[in-house]
């Protein structure tokens, strides 16, 4: 696939995923059923593609550690995300998840010894925290019951960032589809067990929009979106790929406003602007600073 098309699709998928998550529960389907169905369908699709492409599967201890690291992001983050999505607008979900690269940088410095926490990047982390505080205050003014959902979303973002660092620590050379497939199967098993323990009953009915959202997330959100993302990482500079998390929060806010009639409050816009600025400062601030003072 041409790189520009892949880039546009990844931005679109990541921008629409929060709204699809909201739509994938309700209408006769609980949040746990929605995420379990998504992961099982995604794992099955990944297996079919692995067979179709003639890829090999790696069941070594090192590969299993990498699968488990990826599953932490899917299972730990997605369970909390789906629960929180019942109470929060999709645009807010996208903005909060936008701080994941900053959290990943912090974990990379603490766990991998990466020398990434420069003063400017610490400032970016603090600015992102301020943005989250503004979002929290604004959402609490609208919905007094939003506090647990926002806290769960921040924890989910932390799980997601930690997972990315652990995948890097336990990295094994293999096709991205095989990597995603292994993590999806572990996640699917985990959510199926959780569903069996807490409920264990199949939905008696499901609205067409709910089923469509689950199918969309299974195909694009869980498999093809990540395949194209790895495709971009292999063919574009990291700085170019880093534009994706910068573009996702504002586009997700706009999509939620246009399609789902979600409110664009002053606090949401201000918090999103501060978080996007923090991401840009984290990604390019040091380079700009060095060039400015190298003259």
Automatic annotation (TrEMBL):
TM regions (residue ranges): 36-54, 66-85, 91-112, 119-136, 148-167, 179-198, 210-230, 237-260, 266-285
Domain of life: Bacteria
Keyword terms, alphabetized: Membrane, Transmembrane, Transmembrane helix
Localisation: Membrane
Keyword Transmembrane helix: yes
Pfam families: EamA
Major place of residence: membrane
Mode of membrane association: Multi-pass membrane protein
Domain called EamA: residue spans: 7-136, 149-281
Family: Belongs to the EamA transporter family.
Protein's UniProt name: DMT family transporter
């Amino acid at each position: 696939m041409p790189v520009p098309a892949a880039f546009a699709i990844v931005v679109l998928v990541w921008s629409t995923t929060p709204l699809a998550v909201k739509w994938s529960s309700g209408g006769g389907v609980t949040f746990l059923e929605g995420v379990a169905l998504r992961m099982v369908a995604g794992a099955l699709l990944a297996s079919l593609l692995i067979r179709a492409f003639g890829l090999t599967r790696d069941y070594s201890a090192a590969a299993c550690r990498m699968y488990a690291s990826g599953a932490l992001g899917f299972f730990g983050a997605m369970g909390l995300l789906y629960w929180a999505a019942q109470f929060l607008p999709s645009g807010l979900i996208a903005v909060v998840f936008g701080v994941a690269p900053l959290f990943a940088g912090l974990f990379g410095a603490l766990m991998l010894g990466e020398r990434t926490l420069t003063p400017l990047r610490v400032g970016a982390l603090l600015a992102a925290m301020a943005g989250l505080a503004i979002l929290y205050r604004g959402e609490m003014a609208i919905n007094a019951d939003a506090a647990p959902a926002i806290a769960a979303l921040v924890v989910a973002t932390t799980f997601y960032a930690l997972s990315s660092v652990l995948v890097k620590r336990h990295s094994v050379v293999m096709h991205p589809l095989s990597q995603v497939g292994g993590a999806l199967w572990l996640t699917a098993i985990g959510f199926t067990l959780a569903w069996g323990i807490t409920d264990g009953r199949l939905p008696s009915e499901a609205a067409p929009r709910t089923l469509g959202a689950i199918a969309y997330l299974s195909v694009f959100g869980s498999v093809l979106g990540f395949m194209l993302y790895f495709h971009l990482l292999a063919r574009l500079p990291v700085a170019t790929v880093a534009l994706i998390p910068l573009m996702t929060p504002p586009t997700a806010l706009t999509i939620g406003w246009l399609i789902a009639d979600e409110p664009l409050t002053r606090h949401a816009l201000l918090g999103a602007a501060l978080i996007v600025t923090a991401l840009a400062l984290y990604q390019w601030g040091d380079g700009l600073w060095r060039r400015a003072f190298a003259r």
